[in-house]
Specification:
The chain is an alpha/beta fold and 580 residues long. It is 48% helix and 12% strand. Among the domains are: 3-94, Arginyl tRNA synthetase N-terminal domain (Gyrase A, domain 2, 2-Layer Sandwich); 100-117 and 443-571, Isoleucyl-tRNA Synthetase, Domain 1 (Orthogonal Bundle), CATH 1.10.730.10; 173-252, no CATH class. The chain is built from 19 helices and 15 strands. It has a five-stranded parallel sheet with strand order 7-6-5-11-12, with helices on both faces. A four-stranded antiparallel sheet has the order 1-2-4-3. The chain has a three-stranded antiparallel sheet with strand order 8-9-10. The structure holds one RNA strand of 77 nucleotides.
Length: 580
RNA sequence: GCACCCAUAGCUCAGCUGGAUAGAGCGCUGCCCUCCGAAGGCAGAGGCCGUAGGUUCGAAUCCUACUGGGUGCACCA
């Protein structure tokens, strides 16, 4: 039940009646008519811009439309008052009983309250993390993982058919480096001195891989030329790295539906097929690129290449798909990979990239537009850096100095819930500070704690009333009479009513951080109401010796925590029953 | 040189895909527990929404140009 959508329908119906009665011209475009909460609660519960939006196309004055529309709206039983204000807004005050009905609805539906039909089962593919399989995940990956996962959950909640996908970059030269690095650890496992040359991966995490290689191959690969072991070791060590990454993701509570291997595209004709498709569309040609303006790279030379005409789709430059030696560039398998997404029937694609890959967005969008002939849209969400702090001091990460902070480090220190919530308290394209001391702080300037505390407080009330022998189950609370809310309870009830609307807004924008901010506001309303109980005991949730009165108060509080719980669920955070 | 992202209170950031007098936390000032969890709440002070134009009934939000910061820029993924 989305109250705002329902009231918009009431407004639209009134407008259509006005059209048929001749008060308004027929055939007006009503799509810009909105019903939303006014900034100032004194203006009422909801406001519509209908009169202002329609004034020009209808050839009427906003006030005239507004006067008639407000009269028509007064016929709606859920509207107590509709009045014209300002330049032509219509402010609506809703019947008090409406808010109780929303809370009641939340109790009945539980965590499904707010689940939207926005997506209509549209198939969405969310690709995130996609970290190179060359080592454990670090903090930078963590934010992308949390974001992508929360976004996927959000879209699912909004009614989309979501697939969570990880693209394994196991086809490129970095995997050769991995295999060689693992080979040195293998020699080490056989009692030889490893030669971790410049450019190899020095990390300790490859030591167990070396040991596993010894177990599998004994000493049979020692002193053999690279050509005899490289291919095998590529496969072996990539698998080990993916095990590592899967474990890291599990620590965070991230579970993928699909792991798609880049390597699996090679040798199967898939890359060729994707490129042929572009070629058939007349989008591939042999040519040379203009040298970049400004300072030239030292080794610039003009050369003829196989190019994809991405400029036709808004890119700044056509992009090479083949290297001069005839092998594919990294872009070619990416094109093929996205082509598989189109072929697999997805209607919308979302890629979650690090902000340093921003330059890659246009060509990827161009490729998807071209391959799908504009049927499938690609939205790329760029994730800004995480700045680590320790005790307020910026913390520099350095592989050499051994101060490389992994996902595991973060989750083991801060916990998955805290990490996840905190990473969603910033918009994805804004840099994020992560201070180990601050995220663990238990005060209201830590949103994680603040929201959890609100939830825990209500749980505490439920426990207490249970000890009094009362049945305060959700089923029982859904029967409670909450039709006559106290004015002090209204702000909380109204916030609860906003939840379904917020889900749609957040899903439309692909912005899960909005959920986190909403939960903070909701928690704030709950804390406020709680404290009102200090001044006015009749507002306390537990009314001694009066089960019915308690139930009606607790019902509202519980409805709030149902929403908190649903919201935290989208963020992948467990609601706290109590704070320790 | 070009493209993309960002610019909002002293600090860190929201701002509902164009709405009314721009919000929150921190910090500062003053209040509120014999009483459901004060790990909270209330009140006050604090703003030319980077600058200049444009679009319109209406702009922090959309467009253009500047200024300042970040990222990226042919055969690396």
């Amino acid at each position: 039940m989305n109250l705002f959508a329902e009231m918009r329908a009431v407004v639209i119906a009134a407008l259509e009646t006005m059209s048929t009665e001749g008060t308004l011209p027929k055939g007006l475009d009503l799509s810009n008519v909105t019903v939303e909460p006014p900034r100032d609660p004194a203006h009422g519960d909801m406001a519509t811009n209908a009169a202002m939006v329609l004034a020009k196309p209808a050839g009427l004055k906003p006030r005239d439309i507004a006067d008639k529309l407000s009269h028509a709206l007064m016929a709606e039983p859920r509207i107590d008052l509709a009045e014209v204000a300002g330049p032509g807004f219509i402010n609506m005050r809703l019947a008090a009983s409406v808010w109780g009905m929303v809370a009641h609805d939340a109790l009945k539906q539980g965590r499904d309250f707010g689940r939207a039909a926005l997506g209509h089962g549209i198939k969405v593919n969310v690709e995130y993390v996609s970290a190179n399989p060359t080592g454990p995940m670090h903090v930078g990956h963590t934010r992308g993982a949390v974001f992508g996962d929360a976004l996927a959950s959000l879209l699912d909640f909004a009614g989309y058919d979501v697939t969570r996908e990880y693209y394994i970059n196991d086809g490129g030269a970095q995997v050769d480096v991995l295999a060689r690095s693992a080979y040195e650890r293998y020699r080490e496992a056989n009692g030889l001195e490893p030669e971790i040359r410049e450019g190899l991966y020095p990390g300790d995490y490859l030591i167990p891989v070396g040991a596993a290689l010894k177990e599998k191959y004994g000493d049979s690969l020692i002193d053999k030329p690279e050509s005899e072991w490289l291919a095998d070791l590529r496969v072996f060590s990539t698998e080990k790295m993916m095990d590592l990454i899967r474990d890291d993701l599990a620590l965070l509570g991230v579970e993928m539906d699909v792991f798609y291997s880049e390597k699996s595209l090679y040798g199967t004709g898939r890359i060729e097929a994707a490129l042929k498709r572009l070629d058939d569309l007349g989008l591939v040609y042999r040519g040379t690129l203009e040298p970049p303006k400004g300072k030239l790279p030292d080794d610039w030379e003009e050369r003829e290449q196989t190019l994809f005409k991405s400029t036709q789709f808004g890119d700044d430059q056509d992009r090479p798909v083949k290297k001069s030696d005839g092998s594919w560039t990294y872009f070619a398998p990416d094109i093929a990979y996205h082509w598989t997404k189109v072929e697999r029937g997805f209607d919308q694609l979302i890629d979650v990239f690090g902000a340093d890959h921003g330059g890659y967005v246009k060509r990827m969008k161009a490729a998807v537009s071209a391959l799908s002939e504009n049927r499938v849209s690609l939205d790329v969400k760029l994730i800004q850096l995480v700045k680590l702090f320790k005790n307020g001091e910026p913390f520099k990460m350095s592989k050499r100095a051994g101060t490389f902070v992994t996902l595991r480090d973060v989750v083991e220190q801060a916990g998955a819930d805290v990490t996840r919530f905190h990473m969603l308290t910033r918009k994805n394209d804004a840099p994020l500070d992560f201070d180990f001391a601050k995220v663990l702080e238990q005060s209201k300037d830590n949103p994680v704690f603040y929201v959890q505390y609100a939830h825990a407080r209500v749980c505490s009330v439920l426990r207490k009333s249970g000890e009094a022998g009362w049945d305060m189950s959700d089923a029982r609370l859904a029967q409670a009479d909450i039709s006559h809310l106290h004015p002090a309870q209204l702000p909380l009830a109204k916030k609860i009513a906003e939840w379904p609307r917020l889900v749609e807004i957040a899903a439309r924008a692909n912005e899960p951080h909005r959920i986190a901010f909403f939960l903070y506001d909701l928690a704030s309303e709950l804390h406020t109401l709680w404290n009102r109980g200090n001044d006015d005991h009749s507002l306390r949730f537990i009314q001694d010796d009066n089960e019915a009165a308690s139930a009606s108060r607790i019902a509202l509080a519980r409805a709030a925590t149902v929403v908190i719980s649903a919201g935290l669920g989208i963020l992948g955070v467990t609601p706290a029953e109590e704070m320790r």
